[in-house]
Amino acid sequence: MGEPFSGAMPSASPPEDRLDSWKEIAAYLKRDVTTVQRWEKREGMPVHRHLHEKTGSVYAYREELAAWASGRNLRVAQENENSLSSSIPAESAPSLEKQVTALRWKLILSMAALAAVALAICALWFQRTERFWRSPLTDARYQAVTDFDGLEQAATVSRDGRFVAFLSNQDGPTDVWVTQVGSGQFHNLTHGSASQVVNPSVRDLGFSPDGSLVTYWMRKRDGSGTEDIGVWAVPMLGGEPRPYLEGVAEFDWSRDGSRLAYHTPGPGDPLFVSNGSRLPADRPIFSAPDGLHSHFPLWDPEGKFIYFVQGTLPDKLDIWRIPSVGGNPERITSQNTLVSHPVLLDHRTLMYLACDPDGSGPWPYSIDVERRIPHRLAAGPERFTSLAVSADGRRLVATVASPKRTLWRLRLSGSNAEVSAATPILLTTGTGFYPRFGLDFLLYVSGTGTKESIWKLADGTSTELWSAEGARVLGGPAISADGRFITFSVRQHGKSLLYSMQADGTNARIVVDSLDLRGSPAWSPDGKSITSAAIDHGVPHLFRIPVDGRPPTLIVREYSVDPTWAPDGSFAVYSGPDIGTTFPLQAVTAEGESRRLPSLTLTRGARRLAFLPGGRELALLRGDIQHKNLWAIHLETGTERQLTNLPTDFNIQDFDVSPDGHEVVFERVQDYSHVVLIDLAGK
């Protein structure tokens, strides 16, 4: 009925041994149809055709195929003993099936390995990009807590989320206030008894674990040492304030209220952990390196870690954590900017306040403490100045401020100058800061959007002298003694640059770009060099930077920033390290030797100094962190005299004295702020 493809007679095998299609033949040999058709044409595989039907109608017998496969395998083995890749099993069809199965498993395992690698790559990509990250503030509900005309700051919330405490000058002095959420009633708890309670570099307010007390940071009136700092408490329902943790700057209770983490205001802000109180014999689990601060201690919900903010004040900071039993600190953020008020929504979601690299902000950020990719959560003209959270992570309380920086003139006389004699300086730029007197002009800095620029005001006309996109002026500019040149330092695209230009803004050039500059620069009286602080081994030191291109040289080996040269060039006065909330004034001669000064300790925010005509008196700011007045100190006798008497709401950030000593110009900062409640969705 048919004829064999190879010319042999048809097999006498029983019908059940017959395979009646290419598909059945291919399935028997564990190959595809194309392969077995090729074997028939090229290698004589025994296949039979029905001559009276279509060409594609074929059949074969298992016995013949097995015999052919055995002969084919032997032939291939003789040709190449080591080549088994294309052979068909020799003994029988079951042997063929075993080899095919083994090859199939190899293919499956290879594909599985490739899939695993692909999944690992995808997982790594998702981890680095956090494609599925979701902002904690998504669908959050915002509610204004305060609407006072005064200043509200340092807001915090009780553990159960029912009460909010904040600082306010609603009644005149800055006091501790409290309100029950939704009640619309506000209660002054301290009534003027707390003299110095504002410190933006720490968490000013808190609640005791049971919610019965409101705690607050305080420095004793007229105190200047670290021993004058402590934490006080006042009953939430009213009563007399009392010491809570003496000698402690900040603290945080563990979630169960059994352990206390706190730091003292000494050098390095030593961090301690105790069972509920401060003990003299306690040993710190951590202290920041020389010149650095460590603030905002925070327990994680599980009690394994204590988070804190470490770095150089005010704006070279990051968040770290350390095991609560002690050990090596671990860096969580790498933003190196102003960072404050960390809070944990759960054991992995950390929120905090931070400025952008260009100095704008601060705004709320969020980060997964394991993945460590920061996300900015908000942007706009308002700044966030404090952040706190309830124990369950569902309710946030923030202080939001709209700052305004303006310039004011004030004539100096023999008696204390009153603010009523001060007049605002009208600027076409709107804002102004870092004022400096020239011989016949006023120099200042103004900021718009993503850049800060240097302006000159002369004869009632403002002229822009220098600007650059993304640039932020560090400290303030300085004018040479002859009034011909201006120097200033900026941070631009992650790098600090020291510039010099002529007083009309021409011939601006970079003097040095190899130093990590800090604070304000100062011209030497001879105009041949510029003195500025720069970071060296993690600590700022004063360097002399020649304007002729020679390399900078170190002047002061200790912590030193913001120099001011005496008019005769014999010595410079500078600020020492900030410990607690105060720092000393020190001096160095032109030869680099230490020079004796009267014992002078100033409060944080008072680093700006200016010599009065004659060079024997130094003008400086005295007062607490939030409010200061201008004073003059005689550097030989130590005699002090007050030059201004400004009200508590007149906050001076910077100043300068005219060359004749008859006028002073102030940078005034006004923060219009309010407290906001944020209820998080999906918590």
From TrEMBL:
InterPro entries: 6-blade_b-propeller_TolB-like, WD40, WH-like_DNA-bd_sf
Transmembrane segments: 107-126
Presence of the UniProt keyword Membrane in the record: yes
Keyword terms of this UniProt record: Membrane, Transmembrane, Transmembrane helix
PANTHER family: PROTEIN TOLB, PROTEIN TOLB HOMOLOG
Family note: Belongs to the TolB family.
Name the record gives this protein: DNA-binding protein
Source organism: Telmatobacter sp. DSM 110680
Taxonomic placement: Bacteria, Pseudomonadati, Acidobacteriota, Terriglobia, Terriglobales
